[in-house]
Amino acid sequence: MMANNEMRSSSSTLSAAPSLTTMSKPSLNNSKASLTHSRQSVAESSSKEPKPPTREEKIAELLDKAKFYTSLCLGTTAILSVFAFLFLIPFVVDPAITTIVSDYDPVPVTCVVTDHVYAEGMRNCTWSSCREGCTTAAIRCHQLLVNYTKIAYHEWQAQPRDLDSIEWDVMDTKFLVNTEGCGYPPRVNCSEFAKKYGYSHVGEPFPCYYSRAYPEMVVARYSWEDNLKHLILSLIIPNVLFAVSIGVLSYWYCPCCDKACHKSPRVYAEKYPTKENKQSWNLDYQQDYMSKI
User: Fold this and answer.
1) With pLDDT > 70 as the criterion, what percentage of the chain qualifies?
2) Which residues, in sequence order, are bridge partners of residue 59?
């Protein structure tokens, strides 16, 4: 009996073996067929010519290029605005604020130059009425001293007076080309300044502006409108350009700004479903479940 059972088991295994081999052959053939089909599809796709871009794709590509170059220009503008503002602080902003604080009388009064000295060397140029360059040490300078009276210059021209009989309000005070006493060409030209007020013009009356806050300070030219205009322009233009550039770049490339700008206008409580919505959703779910059963 045991021998018969062994014979039966061996025959069953032998009969099962061909079935396994017969089952594996079709799968192998299917894989080969799929591989050849994929190769054919790849060859066909490579042999086909690429489709020309559509109008929408061309517009999208053009917009991407425009965005890139605009971003480049905005970044450059932001950097240049910072450097421009830092450059304007010592040359425009600080002198304009100092001029406002000095509170010059807008009506020119009468001045007379009493002394003019042209000096060279840092030891001799401890102060200057005019020197070219505000950030460097004074090597050459013009030093002018004046007397001034608070009589308006237009009144002096209408009715001239004897210089010896005038009671000067301030005598032998420093006369400056502007509040800082320095500047850069062509706005400040010390040679022209000296020719206009010094040398052979000593003792001749001319209009000048004195400071009501510091009576010893006298300048050759002053304009409230120009001073205020320069101050406002130097503060607004660089800062506005910087703010606009950074704002646009942040809106385009900052994820936090994009989320904040496209935030849902709904109230926080409205984001949660109501009781009626939950009941309708439960009924729909039950109907779908019953239909599947």
Assistant:
1) 70
2) none
pLDDT, residue 267, reads: 46
pLDDT digits (tens, 9 = 90+) for 103-161: 999 999 999 999 999 988 888 888 899 988 888 777 888 999 999 999 999 999 998 88
Question: Distance between CA 254 and CA 233 in Å, rounded?
Answer: 30
Give the separation between CA 177 and CA 130, rounded to whole angstroms.
6
DSSP 6-37: HHHHHHHHHHHHHHHHHHHHHHHHHHHHHHHH
pLDDT tens across 246-287, in order?
A: 999 998 888 776 565 555 544 444 555 566 666 666 666 666
Residues 6+ apart with CB under 8 A from 70: 248
Q: Where are the alpha helices (DSSP H) in 179-223?
A: 190-197
The sign one gets for the Cα dihedral 16, 22, 27, 28 is positive
Handedness of CA 249, 254, 257, 259 (dihedral sign): positive
| Cα 110 from Cα 152, distance rounded (Å) | 6
Tokens of 236: 């607004």
Which 3 state secondary structure label does DSSP give 138? coil
The CA-atom distances, in angstroms, between 262 and each of 251, 259, 265, 266, 268 are 11, 5, 9, 12, 15
pTM of the complete model beyond 0.70: no
Phi-psi region of 48 (alpha: psi -120 to 50; beta: other; left: phi over 0): beta
Chain centroid to CA 83: how far?
9
The answer to whether the CB of 81 falls within 8 A of the CB of 245 is yes
Residue 114, burial from CB neighbour count under 10 angstroms (0-12, 13-18, 19+): middle
The DSSP element (H or E) to which 99 belongs, if any, is helix 94-102
φ/ψ bin of 203: left (φ > 0), alpha (ψ from -120 to 50), beta (otherwise): left
